[in-house]
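Justification of computing resources. Each target in the renewal requires a structure prediction run like the one illustrated here; the chain below, 448 residues long, is used simply to show the kind of job we budget for.
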Amino acid sequence: MSVAQAARHAILLAAGKSTRMQSRRSKVLHEVGGRALLDWSLSLAQDLSCARRIVVVGTDPEVRAAAIARVGASDVVVQDPPLGTGHAALQARDALATAGGVTAVMFADTPLIPIAALQELYARVEAAGGVAVLGFEAAEPGAYGRLIEDGAGGLARIVEAKDANAAERAIRLCNSGVMAAPTALLFDLLAQVRNENAKGEYYLTDIVALARAAGHPAQIVRCAEADTLGVNSRADLAAAEAAFQAKKRAAMLAAGVTLRAPETVFFAWDTEIGADCEIEPHVVFGPGVRLAPEVRVRSFCHLEGCFVDSGAIIGPFARLRPQADIGVGAHIGNFVEVKAVRIGAGAKANHLAYLGDGEIGAGANIGAGTIFCNYDGFDKHRTEIGAGAFIGSNSALVAPVRIGAGAYVGSGSVITKDVEADALAVARGRQESRAGWASAFRARKQKK
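Resulting structure tokens:
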């Protein structure tokens, strides 16, 4: 039976209790690469052009709210009580009753499955019908279910490790748990699954034997073991993060990015870096960072939600926060924090500054110790600095305020009013000198 060109759907199982995470939060809301595990699975289903993405949740209100926020209430179903993976998948039956096409059952705690593996899984079912299962060759099969092949290279059955004999335990081809079938057939098979086992649960894996008994083909699609890494504990989460980072670093190097010490650089899932950028050791990229080609990020910087244009130099020890927009050839130096500021081409803030909410014109110079006083306790206000302006060291600019193009602000000033273009603004106490005061003071102290 061919179901080619039919719609694709996905059931994402997110109803687990996450006991081994030792966390108040469900494991599917923990992050890898700055992205929740649930979002990895939902994004994969979206990239596969799934028309419906049904999320099966348990009784955790936080997970349910998160799922509804992402796919809408009509595509979220509840499994209560939890009676196994087969029972969980069956909860999506009403939501997909008239959907047709092919449906894959996926897990919201496996963030690293590549799209190519799922494309093949769907394609196999679309071409031949029946059931297709994603499997992998395990270095240490351990507690994984074993995929038992038939003589023609298809899947005969799945044997759980605890039920396997010695010969079956020696098999390294293992079950990832991810499988697909025509939607109507999937729910027909799930309805036949029984819970006659030690745990009294309904297992998704039982549909393979049921499909074969009814004359439907069962196939195996292979992927790498690392691709199927599931997260059930903090150790698993760390392993998934390490696997993601290793893959991302390799991709960056292949794309022409220089990483001086790759193992010390950490990327987010959506980090974009242009060719000929140089990233020094100990740099962290949070979500939402884009670097144009030929940017240099020096050691111990943290970037998130920002854009850096070509030729700019960031750091060392700089922090770029959301909506920081760094222009061509600009310099952001050590211990400078930038948040929601557009910094023009060639502008420099080389030392010890906080720049929040505003704009800095091309070629402007921001002295050490400069602060944009952007928050009044209730609202944020903007500071605007014109092209070529010079802000002296240890200046506080109290927003809202505008410094005109080419203007100078004297060091140590507290600026509360706009400064005209090409003007000099000095706002500090007048210096006085009293000759001989210091020696007289010391003499009095010594006598006392």
